[in-house]
Every structure is written in structure tokens, then in C-alpha cells.
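Lab manual, section 2.4: Encoding a predicted structure.

Procedure: take the sequence of the chain (493 residues), apply the prediction step described in section 2.3, and record the output as C-alpha cells. A sample record is shown.
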Amino acid sequence: MTPLEATHAHLTRRNLFGRTAVGIGTAALATLLGRSSNAADAARNADDGVSRIGGLAKLPHFPSKAKRVIYLFQNGAPSHVDLFDYKPMLKKMHGTQIPDSVVGGRRFSTMTGTQTARPCLSAITKFAQHGKSGAWVSDFLPRVAEIADDLCFIKSLHTTAVNHAPAITFFLTGSEQAGRPSMGSWLSYGLGNDTQNLPAFVVMTSRDKEASCGQIFYDFYWGSGFLPTKYQGVKFRGSGDPVLYLSNPDGMSRTIRRDILDGLAKLNELQLREYGDPEIATRISQYEMSYRMQMSVPELTDFSDEPAHVLQMYGPDVHRQGSYAYNCLLARRLAERGVRFVQLMHAGWDQHRNLNTQLKIQCTDVDAPSAALVKDLKQRGLLDDTLVIWGGEFGRTPFLQGKIEETKQWGRDHHPYTFTAWMAGGGAKPGLSYGASDEFGFNAVDDKVHVHDFQATILHLLGIDHTKLTYKFQGRYFRLTDVHGEVVKPLLA
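Recorded output:
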């Protein structure tokens, strides 16, 4: 057997594909890295004057109002008719069947889909107008009411999904089906990062203390979809080390860890040159990020430098790691350190059978921290270029789920046909209540805002034309807003 024949005899299928792919892979890698390098250089010298790490060369498309986003996502769907959308008609018709002409054959979840009795349910809270803007806010949210003139209320949001996971996925990725990049991933990809020591996209989760709601935080809510995985959100845990494996094992010094990472980087670079897989480049960058986070994260989570009056503003839970209050303060600290997108998700709003008890508890948990975050950013001069968003995946039905005589089990079902969210700072118009629902709070009727319109407006505030931030995957170009969405210009300051 000749040497050539011996080589062929021992050539495995894996080796064959690996070796024959080198030429194509190297060419593709050269193109990929060249494009990324040029984009990064251009981003560092972008027209907005901000020095950035990564990002696309032509972004932002125009001068931006906002440079970062803090999204306070309220999992489970807050009841708009109990919190922001005051409807005297519900009080007038309390206990009376909601007219069929209003319902109009709309579909609901299986919990009320076959329920024939749909009595109107009056708001269980008291409403008042606040500030110069006269915004209606429930007495369950007194601290949010205090900042009403800083807020931009959108009262005509509407969506399509009637169940939680698809509806949340739709808001965060532009599709009801999992697998698309989340909003934070799109922004990390397009705008890069303003800090080398923390991820561009950070996620934190919290829930009501009573665990009254069975909402699950799925990883695809902050996933990168078909974008390289370096753009996915980094989840900070609610207990122990915020990020796993940042701490060195016993007996390992920072110097030794540096030497190990250098060795791993060399091995990974060899693999990268041979196979051209962008996920190897992600691995290299993430190892480096984790090393830098060993120093930045402990400093980030040390609240000892926070003034007492600031801690008091966020409420008594601010020192409890994993609480909504703790996460809100951490979100402000992340924002001032240059993190592009902070996604804070709080579950517990799913009041199907416990509206009379749980809604007030839930509001108490989020009221002071949400308002404190806006006030804190404003006091530090960060609100002008930080967009804060507060809202859930849909609203709650104006009619009762259950029986009117069973007061302790009053509840409201999922309601996608109109609901309310608010924005603050980052170029959103303060002191505005935009859009309106009908007299029952059932359908959006004036200045309707679809989810894709909402997303397009957020991107616009960040200096992005939503039709131009695209990524080619499996033969077609994708974007956050799919093929829909119009910027809602009246929402812009």
C-alpha cells in the first residue's frame, strides 16, 4: 500500500468534510471578519460622536434621541382598566352583560372562550387625574402618578396573541413563534456597545413574592435567534453570583486564569482559521468578556456608594437580590455604565381569580421602583438619552372571568384588543396620553398602535430606520418589525 493509499484508508468522514471545507471556510471567514472589522471601525467614528465597540457601519441612520433602553416588561399583563384607562361606563354597567356589539365575536383564552355570561366589571381601584397633563392613574400606583408629566402613555396598543408566551415573544422579537432575535439582540448587533467591561444586552427577572402566577421566563425571550450568539442577552441571576463561573475556583489566581484564557484563545483561533465558524469567534469574545466582568460585576452590584435617599426611593426591597426594586436600581447602574439594552421582566400580573387581592400587592411591588428609576435617571441627567418602557404583553378583559357573586374570586382574562403602556425619556413625548379605547375599554378606536408600530417607534428613537436594520437568513432578509410597522410620530418629543 502506497503512502497515498494509506492516507485515504484512514481518512474519516469527519476529516474529509473538515479539510475540504477549509478553503471555502477561510474565504468566508476573511469576508466575515473584514466586514466586521470595517463596521467596527466605522462605528467607533460614527456621526453621533459616540465611541462604540462593534455595530454596523451605517448606524445610526440619523441622529438618535435615545442611546440605551431599559424595558420594564410586566409579564402576565397588567389590567389597563384598573390602572390607566379610566372607564366610567364599566361602573355604570357593573354586573350587566357587556353588549354583543362590543365583543363582536372576538376570541379569548380557553378560560373564558366558552363563558356565555360576561358581566361588566367596574375598576376595583379609584382613579384620579395627575400633573399638568391630567393623566388618569389608579390609586394603586401613587408613585407612578407623581411622575405622570414625565410619562408618555399609549392607550391604544393592540396585538394578536391571546396567550402569554406567544404574546411576549411577539413584543420582544416581532414574531409569535420562537426563533427570531430579540429586540436587545438587534440593538447589540446594529449599534454595538458603549462599554468593554459589561455585555451590551443584560436581562434580569423577578416575580411576585406569593408566586401567584405560573409565568415561565423562557430563554428565547432574550435569545439572538439566527444572529450570532454573542448578541444574545446575558441573564443576571437573582441569587448568588449574578453570572455563573465568574468567580475563580479555590486556588486559582487571576494571573493563572489569564494564562488559561490566553491558551484557550490560541486554540480557538486555530479552529477559527480552519473552519471559519463565527460561533468560535463568539466563544473567544465571551471568554474575554467574562474575564473583564470579574472586575466590573462586583463593583456594579455593590450598592454601598448609593446615597441613603436614593435607596429609600426604590423601596425596602432594594437590598433583596432578585427583587424588582433591586433590579431597577441595578438597571440604572448598568445604564450609566454604558449597557445598551436592559430587559427587566417581572411576573405576577395574571389575575384570573385573585384580582381583588393580588393586583394591589403586585402594584405595591413595582410602583415605587418604577417611578424611582425614572426620577433617578432624571436627577443624573441620563433620562434624556435613556428610553424607559413599562408594559405587558396585552391587557385584561373589561368583563368578569367567573361569577359576579363570587367576590373573592373575581378576575379578568387576557385581552389583546386594547391596553396601555408608557414610555419615559429617550425622546418620547412627556405628558402625553395618546390613543383611546372605546367606552368599555374593549377595543382600540382612536390612533391605534400595533406592536410593530411600537417597535418601529422604539427603533426610531434610537436613530434606526426599522426597514433598514435587516439580516439575511435562509435566503431572505429579516427585521424586527417583519414587513410591517409605522413610526408613531406624535409619540416623539
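Check your result against the sample. Confidence is low (pLDDT under 50) at residues 1-8, 14-50.
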